[in-house]
Amino acid sequence: MLLTKHGHACVRIEDEGRVLVIDPGTLTDAAALAGATAVLITHEHEDHVDIDKLRAARQANPSLTIHAHADLVAEFDEDAIPVASGDTFISAGFTVRAVGGKHAEIIDGFPGCANLGFIVDGLYHPGDSFFVPAEAVDTLLVPCSGPWLKLGEAIEFTRAVRPARAFPIHDAHLSDIGLASFDWLLEAKGGAPYARIPVGESVNL
User: Fold this and answer.
1) Under DSSP, is residue 190 helix (H, G, I), strand (E, B) or coil?
2) Which residue pairs, CB below 8 angstroms and at least 24 apart, start in 184-188?
3) Can you list the positions of beta strands (E) in the chain?
4) pLDDT tens digits, residue range 29-66?
5) How far apart are CA 183 and CA 193, in angstroms?
6) 16 contact partners, CB below 8 Å, separation of at least 6
7) Are 141 and 39 in contact (CB under 8 A)?
8) 24: CATH
9) At what angle do helices 176-189 and 151-161 cross, to 10 degrees?
């Protein structure tokens, strides 16, 4: 299985011609969706979902399937498939389990929107949350920047999930200095093998 890091929170998973994209937002190049079979959307924020990009991808490939929380489906695409926390389904030939349910709080209950994490054949994309799933995780995509998190929480999250390996996402807000600081601490304190995938590059899982 090939994992490719795209802009910010977006990743692309490929295996034997199957292509699944998670969270192609406004900080992601449209090329991430080229040839995609299916798309998973964790939540409604534009850095995770770009409606115009998805509509263009759907026009290019009418068979493209989109899975998202029912709240988001109701807002942007009646043809998208609603998903709830606890659901297990097949997307682009991959087995996917939806977990969690709420966006991490910034302050005073804000933003309070739905957020689904997705476990795809052992790879976990939590969206904007630190929800720890009950099942074992082989590969964790750990968020590293945003108004709802601090670095210590990312370390504690990684320790709690106990993955076989971890790679960072949600990193567009950080400078090169910030990225280096995050990487050093996650590698030193996260309790799991950790590495950064440069944008546009891939690793085999």
Assistant:
1) coil
2) 185/151, 185/155, 186/142, 186/144, 186/154, 186/155, 186/158
3) 2-5, 11-15, 18-22, 38-40, 65-69, 81-83, 88-91, 94-102, 114-120, 123-125, 139-143, 165-169, 202-204
4) 989 999 999 999 999 999 999 999 998 998 899 999 99
5) 11
6) 93
7) no
8) 3.60.15.10
9) 40
Alpha carbons 162 and 158: distance in angstroms, whole number: 6
pLDDT in tens, 63-73: 999 999 998 88
Give how many domains the chain has, as a whole number: 1
Phi-psi region of 87 (alpha: psi -120 to 50; beta: other; left: phi over 0): beta
Locus of tokens 């949600």: 170
Tell if the pTM clears 0.70, that is, is over it: yes
| Residue 202 CB coordination number (10 Å) | 14
Nearest residue to 40 (alpha-carbon basis) of 121, 151, 159, 131: 121
Q: Residues near 177 by Cβ (< 8 Å), separated by ≥ 6?
A: none
Task: Supply the range of the domain harboring residue 98.
Answer: 2-204
The whole-angstrom separation of Cα 192 and Cα 161 is: 10
Q: How far apart are CA 28 and CA 7, in angstroms?
A: 4
> What residue type is assigned to position 152 of the chain?
G
Residues 6+ away with beta carbon under 8 Å from 90: 96
